[in-house]
Amino acid sequence: MGILEGKRLLITGVLTDASIAFAVARLAQEQGARVVLTGYGRLSLVERIAKRLPEPPPVIELDVTDTAQLDSLADRVSEHLDGLDGVVHAIGFAPQSALGGNFLNTSWEDVATAVHTSTYSYKSLAVACLPLMKEGGSVVGLDFDATKAWPVYDWMGVAKAGLESCNRYLARDLGKQGIRVNLVAAGPLRTMAAKSIPGFKEFEESWPDKAPLGWDLGDTEPAAKACVALLSDWFPATTGEIVHVDGGVHAIGA
What pLDDT sits at residue 194? Predict the structure, then answer.
């Protein structure tokens, strides 16, 4: 019997089988969970990737910046699950002008897009799922350590700092409903999201050497295992937390 036996989960952000979200979905099913995925823009791609999971799950459309889709989310998930015990927020986007060393020149419109999609959507998704989480549960988001100014990360770094703050406020406000809210801050991985960041090689080249435990840029499983653990009942009194899964780089000064 797995640690997620009987759990019902909504997982966003499965674009390829190299994504952290895909590894979360796979491990969650292996640990006994029932899963529904969301996709945006390329549903056929998500449906194709979903077939690579142990048990191909339903895929529903969700644009986290679309109020109408958020308002109907609970009803659409209810067509497949009778409630939710966990939600995974694996969503982030910034226009190219907001990345790659262009920090001082990025327009507010592009910054607003990054913050809406990568930060505000964490709250939006959690609130949209509340009607299905009447017995409490766990919300887990994917993060990248925002306590430092990283090369080329620019406004996405600012958006992640907002995500970390949002995590604390959601923990404060959803705790009374028995809902835990936590982030997993993974080190750099060769995912589709990483490929969209100009100059990502700056992370790739230095991270494994800095990490006390070492770091495999192609292995999403450590981060996924942390997500699965937080979705389980093994962290019943943990909320508002950021769990670093980065080989230990966050703890090293130089």
Answer: 63
The residues that are catalytic are: 153, 160
Q: What is the pTM of this model?
A: 0.95
Determine how β-strand 86-89 pairs with β-strand 8-11: parallel
Give me the domains of the chain, ranges plus CATH numbers: 8-251 (3.40.50.720)
Give the model's confidence band at 193: pLDDT under 50 very low, under 70 low, under 90 confident, else very high: low
Question: Please, are residues 232 and 182 in contact by the beta-carbon 8 Å criterion?
Answer: no
Q: How many CB atoms lie within 10 A of CB 211?
A: 18
Amino acid identity, position 60: I
Residue 20, helix vs strand vs coil: helix
Neighbours of 55 (CB within 10 A): 13
Phi/psi for 18 (5° steps) reads: -95, 0
d(CA 82, CA 211): 42
d(CA 231, CA 60): 21
Residue 29: name the closest of 198, 181, 224 by CA. Answer: 224
